[in-house]
Write the structure tokens for this entry.
Amino acid sequence: MRQRSLHSRVLGTLLLCWIIVLPLVGTMPPQARAAETVTYTVNSELDGADTTPDGMCLADQLEGGPCTLRAALFEANFAAYMGDRAVVNVPEGTYTLSLTTPVSQDAFWGDLDLVGESSSSAYHHQIVIQGTGPGSVEIDADGIDRVLEVQGAVDLELYNLVIKNGLVLATAAEDAQGGGILFNGSQLLMRNVSFQLNEARGKLVDPTFSSQGGALSVENAILDTIDCSFVGNKADVGSAIYTWAPGSDRYAFLYGARILDNEAADRGAVVSTHSPLYLVNATVTDNVTRADPGGAQVCNNAVEAWDTAAVQNSTLQSAGWGWNLTCRNRPCAVRNSVFLTDQVGGAYGKNCAAVSTQINTGGGNVADDTSCWSTPAEADLVINRRDWQLAQRFGRYWVPYGSSPVVNRRNSQCIAITEFIGTTPQWGGLLLDARRNGRDDNLCDAGAIEGLLSFTYLPWAVVPSLE
């Protein structure tokens, strides 16, 4: 909730608490203390707030004072302010947000909130939220608000979580941003996090309104993800992911991402980035576009990059009029990737478009038109749409079969960006494909899925039995 300044209100509470405990710790500022790791373990699926930051996770308006998720994050935020690294362990279960009555602090109702120092501060809060299983750990906003909002100098790590059913509505004064998570911190690192059925609703509230980031909106921060999925989310622009950090080194690294069944407005794009984008071992398929209220034209854009972009060993598929990859103002590079278009209403789109810039190829790509490069590099191939020999299996991944042209595009290992050190991309060999199968035959297949020998490249009549 952002009716008033979230940063000023929550940080004000923390500062008041700092005054209370000051006699106990002396005059040393928080960031000067020797950092420790403080751990909170959630023990209740109920939603309840801890209104007393004292290092003890107790939802004080619930009988017995259990450690709820909301209470744990409140104490973790305070521990991080005090200079410690805070870890929140969340066991298997569904944690449904249910507090809707406005009270004095945003952290006590609606979405979950984390607030750090001013974004320009050299001192960053260090917070980890991790699902400990053994089964699924779901944080369900149940449509009352987005799931999580982060403001200020916060380095946040998320592991093994499902973020679902967040909803934020645009107003005449403010766009709707981040239906699942709105992150305006310093760095967001995610591993095995799934965003499902979140929505930032703009034009559907009023045709003059707008929304960005149905699942995730990241502003002026680094986004580093591995094996995350974005399924069934909605927004006008960036129905899955929206980033904003123009002219900076704050990148968006999407490694092994699965981006599926998201819905954007006309010309809105599924992934819309205003920061350097690195899309590696990823699939962007089966997303849809809705017509604007009162409009008929539908342009289905998959990835729209307003800053530099590198697409490597990824599979992009779009249907109808539109583009798989649109590069604006800054150059893009494609390598060992698959670009395919499907027909809707008799119309095919184009795979790539370069607006006031160019798209460079590193070779090894397969596409069903010539729009992704003007001059092919080594192992680039343009094919007839009937010749793909790809079948959607295993959760609608595009799997090669028969003599698919994506198989063995290069007589060498797939080389791509596999990690970042600081803000510097590191190149290395891809050892696994998007389904975690080995890329171990020293022959590089284009796209996100390796053509495994165990498939034996079966003929079409047999492939549908594969599950």
